[in-house]
Amino acid sequence: MPLPEFLKDTDLDLALAAKLLRGGEIVALPTETVYGLAADALNAEAVAKIFAAKGRPLIDPLIVHVADLESVEKLAGAPPMLSRLAEAFWPGPLTVVLEKKEIVPGLVTAGLPTVAVRMPAHPVIRKVLWKMGGVLAAPSANPFGYISPTEARHVRDSLGEKAPWIVDGGPCLHGLESTILHLADSAGPRLLRPGPVSREQLEAVLGCPVLAGGAKEKADGEAQTAPGMLTKHYSPRAAVVLREAGAPPRLEGKFSAKEIAVVWQRRPAEKTPGAEDFWLSEDGDPATAARNVFALLRRLDGAGFAELQVELAEERGVGVALNDRLRRAAARA
Ligand code: TXA
Ligand code: MG
Fold it and tell me: Is residue 222 part of a domain?
C-alpha cells in the first residue's frame, strides 16, 4: 500500500487533523522543537495508540500540549512560579511538570501524581489545538530510542504506516526537544532535561537557583521522573564517537577512514585527509547546530557510515542541550 500524502498547513487539512484527533486517531504534527505524535490527551484509548506506534514502554510519561492557560488549570495545580515562566517562555520550548488533576488519564503520566505540560509556539499545532478544542498528548514522533524527527519525512521514514496522518509544517525551528522543568518538587524547581530554554534563562526569570539533573535512581518498573533515564536514547545505528570542542578527529581505529564521517560544529578550514567531513553550521552558531543535528545524524546513519565522529559544542546556552543529546546518541547501553 503506498504511503499517503502529507497533510498541509491549510484550513481544510488542519480541520481534518482536528477531526481525526477528536475521533481518537493519532496524527503527527510539527512543533517548534521536534515533530510530535499527537492524540487527545483525555482519551486513554487514543493515547494507547501512541505507545503502540512508537513501541514506547508504558513507564515513560507523555507531555500534554495546550493552547492556553485555562487548559493548564484544568489539568494541573498551577503554582505561583508558573505565571512568571508562562509570561517569559510560552508559547515556546519549555515544559513544566505540575501536580496533576483527576481528569488526566494515568496512562499519560505513567501513573505519576504529576503531569508535564507545554504550550507550543508552532502555528500548526496551535491551530489544531484551537480547532479541536482540546489538549494533545504528544511525544516525539520517532520509534522509541531512535533519533527525534525534525522534518515530516523523518516521521514517515521511521514510523511508516504506523503514522498514517502527518502534517508537514517544514523543518523545526529549534531541532531539540523542549526544556523540562519540575515545579512540583518541595526542594525547588529542578531541571529534568536541558533544551532550547537554558538553565540561566530560567534562573533569571525565577530569581532563584534551578536544581540540576533529574536522574535519581529509581526502582525497576517505577515510572521515570526524568526523560531518557535510560541513558541510551536518540541513537543511530552507526557508532557515535564524541570529541571535545576544538579537538581534532582520530582516524586510527577499527574502521578505515572512508567508513568514518567526521562531524564538526562549524565548517572546518581544511579537509580531513581520507575521511568525509560534515558540519552542523557554517559559522559555529550553536542554535543552527542544534537545528541541524538530528537531521544530519539521520542522513549519515542512512548513508551507511560505520562510525560518526562528532565534535561536541561549547558547554553553554543551547550547547548544553545539544551535548546532552550527542552524549545520549553515543551511549552504547
Ligand atoms: O519538545 C518536546 O518536548 C517534544 C514535542 C513533541 O513537544 N516532545 C517530547 O516528548 O520530547 P518525549 O515523550 O519524547 O519526551 C517527554 C519526556 C519523557 O521522556 C518523560 O520522561 C518526561 O518528558 N515526562 C513526562 N511527564 C513527566 C512527569 N510527570 N514527570 C517527569 N517527567 C515527565
Ligand atoms: Mg522522545
Answer: no
Q: How many domains does the chain have?
A: 2
Q: What's the 3-state SS for 188-212? A: CCEEEECCCCCHHHHHHHHCCCCEC
Q: Are residues 102 and 249 in the same domain?
A: no
Q: Are residues 185 and 266 in the same domain?
A: no
Nearest CA to ligand 1 atom 22: 227
For residue 244, with 0-12 CB atoms within 10 Å meaning exposed, 13-18 middle and 19 or more buried, which class applies? exposed
Contact 180, 115 (CB under 8 A): no
Domain that holds residue 116: 6-212
| Calpha distance 333→331 (Å, rounded) | 6
Between 123-137, 202-216, 227-241, 308-322, the lowest mean confidence (pLDDT) is in 227-241
Name which of 28, 22, 66 is nearest 46 in CA terms. Answer: 22
Q: Which three cell numbers stand for residue 88?
A: 517569559
State phi, psi for 304 to the nearest 5 degrees. Answer: 85, 15
Whether the model clears a pTM of 0.85, i.e. scores above it, the answer is yes
Q: Which ligand 1 atom sits nearest the alpha carbon of residue 229?
A: 21
Q: Using one digit for the tens of pLDDT, what is the confidence trace for 264-304?
A: 999 999 999 888 999 999 999 999 999 999 999 999 988 98
Q: How many CB atoms lie within 10 A of CB 142?
A: 25
Q: Which residues sit opposite 179 in a β-bridge?
A: 94
Q: 60 by DSSP, 3-state: which?
A: coil
Cβ–ligand 1 contact at 61 (below 6 Å): yes
28 and 88 in a single domain? The answer is yes
Give distance in angstroms: CA of 207 to centre of ligand 1.
25
46 in a structural domain? yes
